[in-house]
Design goal:
Elements: E1 2-7, E2 12-19, E3 24-28, H1 34-40, E4 45-50, H2 56-59, H3 62-68, E5 73-75, H4 91-95, E6 105-106, E7 112-115, E8 118-124, E9 133-137, E10 142-146, E11 149-150, E12 153-154, H5 164-174, E13 182-185, E14 191-192, H6 193-199, H7 201-204
Length: 211
């Protein structure tokens, strides 16, 4: 079971993946509304707190959740410079972010996060940030893409650490996944890899990754 909670003023998608048999769960990108996230974890055993990248609207409640759950915080260390970086003046206050703790488990390309019957493979997808990653579960046919790939769009590359050429390579990597793979993005509606191949203007080349 996958729960998508759209939280905070930037309407960020916090993703809770639950193994209904063991009642084990992981939280991906707890950006805002920590109490709501915790309520959604009632009667579940949280195994990991995970981030697709280090922007505050995706890690803003990691510190709050760590006060409640004694579980590891998992992220790519290339985004360490971002986890307490306001980027914009007053951004942390606007989204109610807590100070983000250091990473407990540093992940990289090819690592696998296992819990219950789930096995999510780490795909490094720099471009939006240097340490952006996606989490791909081949068996259950879904990929959590953070701010790399959206329905009909992609993550911006004009923030600190962003890179157009890296984004292009990351998108090519994601397009190699099976067409029927469900895409759960960091903002907006879910989609499928096959749909984005055909209709996403950044994938089809209409905008050629330019803004």
């Amino acid at each position: 079971m996958i729960k998508v909670l759209t939280v905070g003023p930037l309407e960020e998608n916090c993703v809770i993946v639950v193994d209904e048999e063991s009642k084990e769960a992981v939280v991906v990108d707890p950006g805002a509304e920590g109490d709501r996230i915790i309520k959604s974890l009632e009667n579940l055993t949280l195994r990991y707190i995970i981030a697709t990248h280090g922007h505050l609207d995706h890690v803003g409640q990691v510190g709050y959740l760590k006060k409640v759950y004694d579980v590891p915080f998992v992220m790519n260390e290339k985004d360490l410079f971002l986890i307490n970086n306001d980027i914009f003046p007053g951004f942390a206050q606007m989204i109610g972010a807590y100070p983000c703790p250091q990473i407990d488990i540093k992940i990289k390309e090819g690592d696998v996060i296992e819990f219950g019957r789930f096995s999510m493979k780490v795909i490094e997808t720099p471009g939006h940030t240097p340490g952006s990653v996606c989490f791909y579960d081949e068996k259950n046919q879904f990929v959590i893409t953070g701010d790399t790939l959206f329905k009909g769009s992609i993550g911006r590359t004009d923030l600190p650490g962003g890179d157009n050429s890296q984004m292009e390579q990351s998108l090519k990597k994601l397009m190699e996944l099976p067409d029927d793979t469900d895409v759960i993005p960091g903002h907006g509606d879910t989609t499928k890899i096959g749909i984005e191949k055909k209709s996403n203007p950044y994938i089809t080349g209409v905008f050629r990754l330019k803004w």
